[in-house]
Structure formats: structure tokens, C-alpha cells
Write a structure and sequence with these properties.
By secondary structure, the protein is mainly beta. It has strands spanning about 5-10, 15, 20, 25-30, 40, 50-55, 60-65, 70-75, 80-85, 110-115, 125-130. The strands form 4 sheets. Strands 2-1-4-7 form a 4-stranded mixed beta sheet, with no helix packed on it. The relative contact order is 0.18.
């Protein structure tokens, strides 16, 4: 799997987007678009810790995520700012759109386990089978948090 590149902006006292999904070895660029200082750090934990320091607009700093897992991203200056970088060693991965949909493309026929990660929620798993020449949507319903 080739590494991804992603960006998280610091804008209006928020990380935008609040969730990024990447593969191990991928880099995420953190840009400060606000007219005041921000900090980017991830606390110590199983997924590793880092601190990119405090920096002004329009500076950008980058971190490479080597370990799989959910990395919580915070700002020392503004503790209400929270984001998650989800590092998954899987070829097929997606984030859910506002309407609740998600899409995988170029999935070969076979049996797969769908893993759903939810911040502050119980993980969900379901086995899905993709038949040869199957191009239609598969409906997956996950119970609310």
C-alpha cells in the first residue's frame, strides 16, 4: 500500500476536517489558517505521541503516522480543539458522508470483514461477500451510538 497524503486545517478554533483516514507511513500536513497561534500534538498512548509545537498563520507542519490506530489530535493553546487521525492498514477504507453513505471502488470478488470505527462508540464488524460482476450497492445499517 502506498502512503497517503492528507491535510488538516486549523480554522475558526477547529481542526478541519475532524477525521482523516490514512494508511501507515502516511503524512498529514497541519496548516494554521487562523490569525492566532495554534499547537498540534497527540498525547502519549499506544498509538505514539508527538508535539509539532506552536506556530502562526500560514505556517504548516507535517507528521508521518507509522503506527496503526486512532491518533487523537489536540491543541495546547485551545483545548476544545479535537481531531482524529485513523491509521488503518487496509487497501479499502472510507469516511462516511453527511448522508450516511460511503463507497469502496475496485473491490475484487471475495469475502471481507467490514470494520466501522466510531468516535465514542462501540466498534462494529460485519462480514460482506462480493460476488463476481457485483456492481450494486450493499446496504449496511449500523445502530446509533
Amino acid at each position: 500500500m502506498a502512503p497517503d497524503t492528507a491535510a488538516i486545517d486549523q480554522r475558526g478554533f477547529q481542526f478541519v476536517p475532524r477525521l482523516v483516514v490514512i494508511t501507515p507511513g502516511s503524512a498529514v500536513s497541519f496548516v494554521n489558517s487562523d490569525p492566532f497561534l495554534h499547537n498540534v500534538f497527540s498525547p502519549r498512548g499506544a498509538s505514539g505521541a508527538f508535539d509539532l509545537g506552536t506556530y502562526p498563520r500560514p505556517e504548516r507542519r507535517t507528521h508521518t503516522f507509522a503506527r496503526a490506530g486512532a491518533h487523537v489530535i489536540l491543541c495546547h493553546v485551545h483545548p476544545e480543539m479535537v481531531a482524529t487521525v485513523l491509521v488503518i492498514p487496509a487497501r479499502h477504507r472510507a469516511t462516511v458522508a453527511e448522508d450516511g453513505s460511503f463507497r469502496f471502488t475496485d473491490v475484487a470478488p471475495g469475502s471481507y470483514t467490514l470494520h466501522v470505527w466510531r468516535r465514542r462508540g462501540t466498534p462494529y464488524e460485519r462480514t460482506l461477500t462480493v460476488a463476481a460482476h457485483d456492481t450494486g450497492p450493499v446496504r449496511v445499517e449500523v445502530t446509533p451510538w
